[in-house]
Amino acid sequence: MTTPALVIDHAVKTYANGFTALNDVSFTVAAGEFFGLLGPNGAGKTTLISAMAGLSRLTSGQIAVNGHDVRRDAYAARMSLGVVPQELVFDPFFSVREALQFQSGYFGIKNNDAWIDEIITRLGLADKADTNTRELSGGMKRRVMVAQALVHRPPVIVLDEPTAGVDVELRQSLWQFIESLNRQGHTIILTTHYLEEAQSLCSRIAMMKHGRLVALDSTANLLKSDTGLRLALTLDNRLPESLHRCLLSSDGDQHTLKLADYGELAFVLQALKFDGINIKSMSLLETDLEDVFLRLTSDHAEGAA
Ligand SMILES: Nc1ncnc2c1ncn2[C@@H]1O[C@H](COP(=O)(O)OP(=O)(O)OP(=O)(O)O)[C@@H](O)[C@H]1O
Fold it and tell me: Where does the record place the ABC transporter domain (predicted)?
């Protein structure tokens, strides 16, 4: 059997102030998967990634990357993992190439110039290779973060919100590159708040909420678990009481309702007509990952802590 890319085994993390950010989390990611780790702000994703990278220590439980325990076999585990962190952090004195050479040295890798050149080219950084990192735009800095995570050719790559604040063109080229790494056999673990990205890229997804795992399944099964339609309405008056049971969210005069089927649409239209409320705009959408995510992770969700 192939060694799993990642094994999280009953991970618990309680911070010094007594707050438990990971509450008995267990799951396994197989080698070669494109895996999504999703959850609202504060769910514990970054805490889990820090523990995977050996940057913070679990209170109890174990994590193994590519078969290497992150504590007992820290060096091998760290060599197996490339993390693209959420925050852009650089040494302001280095050019792009120097930053990558420095990172190579940190991992004890010599004669890495051919690979550094390749990642520079493939990430569209060739024009900027000798530019100081502090002079780069945010999007370019993000590419350098990805390059830094790849310098030691890790089999497992973790991307923590890699497209936050990144323009559409860079997002697309970044995903093409990441998908090509996945085709070459690299395991990709992605956290993102762009659920449409997770839906199109990830074959399996874990969802976390308040430090616990609330879903772990293939993307296809998660989508199947939430049939129905989403109706987005802008109204010229308040939503009738009779429709509150279908309400997913409201923002001013905009409301999103969950309908079981097209038949319920007639009921909604009748209720609005009955109360003399006019529709300013309306759109009907098939269920997507966002519905599943909201159902499982919003504070109104069943079992909310
Ligand atoms: N050093 C710390 N001490 C105490 N609590 C912390 C510490 N670091 C994080 N937390 C808390 O742990 C919880 C989980 O934080 P974490 O950053 O892991 O969430 P996240 O899922 O990555 O969120 P986001 O999507 O916003 O990045 C949060 O409530 C956070 O405030």
Answer: 6-235
